[in-house]
Amino acid sequence: MHFSFLSLLRAAFSAHRDWPEQWRSPGPKPSYDVIIVGGGGHGLAAAYYLAAEFGIRDVAVVEKGWIGGGNTGRNTTIVRSNYLLEESEALYDHALKLWENLSQVLNYNVMFSPRGVMMLAHTTHDVQSFKRHYHANRLAGIDTEWLTPEEARDWCPGLNIARDIRYPIVGATLQKRGGVARHDAVAWGYARAASALGVDIIQNCEVTGIRRGLDGAVTGLDTTRGHIGAKKVGVSVAGHTSVIMDMAGVRLPIESFPLQALVSEPLKPIISCVVMSNTIHAYISQSDKGDLVIGAGTDQYVSYSQTGGMQITAHTLDAICELFPVLRRVRMMRNWGGIVDTTADRSPILGTTPVPGLFVNCGWGTGGFKATPGAGHLLAATIARGEPHPIAAPFSLDRFARGRLIDEAAAAAVAH
Amino acid sequence: MLLITCPYCGPRPEIEFAARGEAHVARAAPDGDGEAVAASLWLRTNPKGLIAERWRHVAGCGRFFNAVRHTVTDRFVTTYRVDEPRPDLAALAAAVGARGEGAR
Lengths: 416, 104
Description:
The structure holds two protein chains of two kinds. Helices cover 28% and strands 24% of the residues of chain A. By secondary structure, chain A is α/β, with parallel strands linked by helices. In chain A, α2 (41-52) packs across α10 (372-385) and α3 packs across α10 (372-385). The longest helix of chain A has 16 residues, at 124-139. Chain A is globular and about 65 Å long. Chain B is α+β, with helices and mostly antiparallel strands. Chain B has one domain: 2-Layer Sandwich (Folate-binding fold), CATH 3.30.2270.
């Protein structure tokens, strides 16, 4: 069914009680052309683009829990593309361009709100580094602006630009095309659109093994709902990538760390944009519901616990209270952790693997949400063609052995 | 915050320690091929279960030591000196249970 003003009006007359399910929940078929492991935003997007753009409709998405319940539902929903290196700029801007009309394409309101992402510089080194990003972005045609502290405060009222604080604000970059989106709606919108094109979305189906034929190629998956055959498998499981790929005997240059976020009680609109600070480890925006959404840093050790140390969030809140003294008495409602798969160069791994028929999309570390449409599209293109999409090619797994790292210290809002 | 037992100083809060990554990673020979060098530089086991890792008590005695920790519960199973061999992780895993419930 198509969402429109008329369909909303019609449903209003029945008090919105008669909305049908937005995607099918079939049992697994004996086999599929392509199975995507992982029903987060990335995996669902890949399934959607396989069906919509590459004509491969015999596709299943298998998900251990419920769709969008992993890192898609645990991040701070920031979208931006102001990265330093050409390969990253192409990758993240590809995603940003897809974000810009995603609601129209999916006919589902993903609430993409390009309200501007402002990144604060606190030291001389920050200024040098950010100006380098600023010039690199302008060369690549990515919108960016340099703000003085006064301009930064005017853009985001309430920002403390006093000179006598521990880390005074000495400048900022601003990407106005950046912003936030509604994380659940992204997963649901892709699921709905993919399901309408014939993709089977199979929840509560955990992969327990990857089967390979005599030639080494993938032949299917063992799951908690039985064996499912597949000609090609795309793995898009974020923090658990090492666990899944180990089933196929593939080792990856990835370590999984907890990353925490927290939200406050709902407030009237007060923070009009996204504010990030690498140096003092904090980023903040305000959701449409009114909660302040605050991102913290990673813990220092490998873990799958989906929780993290309280000292990490306390450190972040120290920084938030100094940036926005007006928020000092706001109460926090919830905090949580996700598990991020981090590569040595803080850039993702997207492409083929040594196992024929097995493709991987991982290593997004602390910044995967912003790439959701782009990562899904590039994974779909790579699976459909059997070779990496040109934008994804630099992010191949073999770059580590070749020494062609894409070293993006800017890939996260935290100092690495 | 984790409570970590330094083999030299006893139990201390995590904030005194720096995690230094997986232990017992053998450095590739300088004349080794690219694959071997890349593997020793970048490939880690990243297990969901017991991991042997290096820690340094930076705000205490300053010394390195190794520890075995369960990556689902973050419980420490044992700590040992850096010159001691890696404990048998499979045997330890059997002793502490699938989720490390038996770890101290």
